[in-house]
Amino acid sequence: MFKRNRLLEMLERDEIPLGMQCFTGHPALIEVMGMTGFDFVMIDCEHSGNDVCAMESSVRAAQQAGLAPYIRVPDHADETAIRRALEAGAEGIFLPMIRSAADVRLAAKCAFFPPMGERGICPATRAARYAFRNFDQYTAWNNAEIALVPMIEHPDAVRDIDEICALEEVKIIVFGAGDLAYAMGEGTLMMKSPRVQEAYRAVLDSTSIS
Hints:
Layout: H1 6-12, E1 19-22, H2 27-35, E2 40-44, H3 52-64, E3 68-72, H4 79-88, E4 92-95, H5 101-111, H6 135-145, E5 147-152, H7 155-159, H8 161-166, E6 174-175, H9 177-183, H10 194-209
Parallel strand pairs: 1-2, 2-3, 3-4, 4-5, 5-6
Helix pairs in contact: 2-3
Domain HpcH/HpaI aldolase/citrate lyase: 26-203
Pfam families: HpcH_HpaI (PF03328)
Keywords: Lyase, Metal-binding
């Protein structure tokens, strides 16, 4: 049996998930997070030194600790990174520097199996239970439960937010105030910037409607 995506379940119940970013790739830290009441962990592979082996170890530690494992890939268009994160057992992918709905569609092609996407199959992966489970059940679970999380951290994404939120593949979004502030010429002000606050309200309004 493949379990439901924990974050999606919580959001369907109008619960607020508690999560944290993890840059170290150290399983002990992830275990502590699970013991102290966190619901999910975002394992960073964009800015950290985590390689594929460290990422898989982090996913394994998260699942053992009762956390939903999410991976931030190095690039939203990196098919190999998206595929390997999901094959390791991630329940969702954080997509950095999204600029448009087209960017999300491209990532969806990498994340989902046909007919939803174009991802290649391999029953011998960890996520597919090393071929000890029915692979058709796994692909159906993947296409129903994997969450793509566009990171809204570029002015172009703010302008295209209605189209991004309208995509069937998008169930969660993240507002990235740091990169957005820099891209807008606001330096390190982040949410202290009135312009970033305005962008945040626009994104929030769009998600409320969607």
